[in-house]
Specification:
By secondary structure, this protein is of the alpha/beta class. It folds into 3 domains: 3-66, Winged helix-like DNA-binding domain superfamily/Winged helix DNA-binding domain (Arc Repressor Mutant, subunit A), CATH 1.10.10; 76-171 and 291-313, 3-Layer(aba) Sandwich (Rossmann fold), CATH 3.40.50; 174-289, 3-Layer(aba) Sandwich (Rossmann fold), CATH 3.40.50.2300. Helices cover 39% and strands 19% of the residues. It has a 6-stranded parallel beta sheet, with helices on both faces. The chain has a 6-stranded mixed beta sheet with strand order 9-8-10-11-12-14, sandwiched between helices. Strands 1-2 form a two-stranded antiparallel sheet. The protein is elongated and about 80 Å long. The relative contact order is 0.11.
């Protein structure tokens, strides 16, 4: 155990033994430094961790006080997501459902913006008992995440680990994209090309594009990357792998306007499954992970405070759109 963990345990043990009661004042940071010889930042870190658990509170100019004798309670969890899109909502609902009811959850969204995520991480640093973060693949973000102890951080969705000891429940993109497109190969061959349609500057993993490019090369499929969508420009006889939901809805609208039958005149593969995609246009075939399972496993990791390193499988949901 580190020095600050020894100090946290010592205060908790004193509470459980009845030595410290609710409302009691803890020694000042300066007095603790003089008495036990730990560095000032170590004392501060211990007190702040106890604050994040709701056990200790600080009062301006008065010091630190015992706020609760419920030592087993972890009050605050910070959950940092991309945005509240349909698949993120599925993760959140499952995560919230399986999280222990005595945990207070606060949610933040970074919208795949490095500056916003840096601001969020600076604001929440050392204020929570546990952190669940969907990161951005960026070296600056990785360095910031390294400031969070490995036993207090769970990385979700994207595989960007600050170090080998960190927990993660993430997706794999390159091989899974290649494998699921290969399962659809007979259907894809019915069309003249497979267009990878995505939104420029979006949060799409580069590995997903690599899996698509490997697929069209290995199987001699005509294909191209398109990072914008021009309305009313749908190509009859083409198939689309559409990563952006916004582009998907516009593509479906334009097919309807031109009386193009989905699955016959135009093939469509969607990204990240949802109830809407299951129902729309007779059903949109999707390549997706199980975000409900990701949410459930993430909640279990937080509840049990155990190390988890798990890759969520990717599924092909076959429907009539290709």
């Amino acid at each position: 155990m580190s020095k600050h963990e020894h100090l946290v345990d010592g205060i908790i043990n004193s509470i459980e033994q009845g030595i410290l009661q609710k409302g009691d004042q803890l020694p000042s940071i300066n007095k603790m430094v003089d008495t036990i010889g730990y560095a000032r930042k170590t004392i501060v870190k211990a007190y702040e961790e106890l604050k994040s658990r709701g056990i200790v509170e600080s009062k301006n100019f008065k010091g630190y006080f015992i706020a609760s004798v419920e030592t087993k309670q972890v009050l605050k969890i910070a959950l940092v997501l991309y945005a509240f899109q349909s698949f993120q909502e599925s993760f959140y609902n499952s995560f919230r459902q399986h999280l222990n009811p005595n945990i207070e959850l606060e949610v933040f969204f970074h919208h795949n913006n490095v500056e916003i995520l840096e601001t969020i991480l600076a604001r929440i640093e050392r204020k929570y008992g546990f952190y669940v973060i969907a990161p951005i693949e960026n070296t600056r973000i990785k360095k910031i995440l390294q400031k969070i102890p490995s036993d207090k951080l769970l990385i979700i969705d994207r595989f960007l680990l600050p170090g080998p000891d960190y927990s993660h429940i993430t997706q794999e993109f390159e091989k899974s994209t290649y494998d699921k497109l290969t399962e659809l190969l007979p259907s894809v061959r019915r069309f003249k090309e497979l267009i990878f349609l995505y939104k420029k500057d979006s949060d799409i993993p580069r590995e997903e594009i690599s899996g698509y490019e490997k697929f069209i090369i290995d199987h001699n499929i005509d294909g191209r990357l398109v990072d914008s969508y021009i309305d009313n420009n749908v190509s009859q006889g083409s198939a689309y792998y559409v990563v952006s939901d916004d582009f998907l809805w516009r593509l479906l609208r334009d097919c309807g306007n031109r009386n193009l039958k989905i699955g016959r005149d135009v093939g469509i593969i969607g990204h990240d499954d949802s109830l809407v995609k299951e129902m729309m246009a007779g059903g949109i075939t999707t390549i997706s992970t199980d975000f409900e399972q990701m949410g459930k496993l993430s909640a279990e990791c937080v509840n049990e405070r155990k190390k988890v390193q798990h890759i969520i499988p990717t599924y092909l949901n076959r429907r009539s759109s290709i």
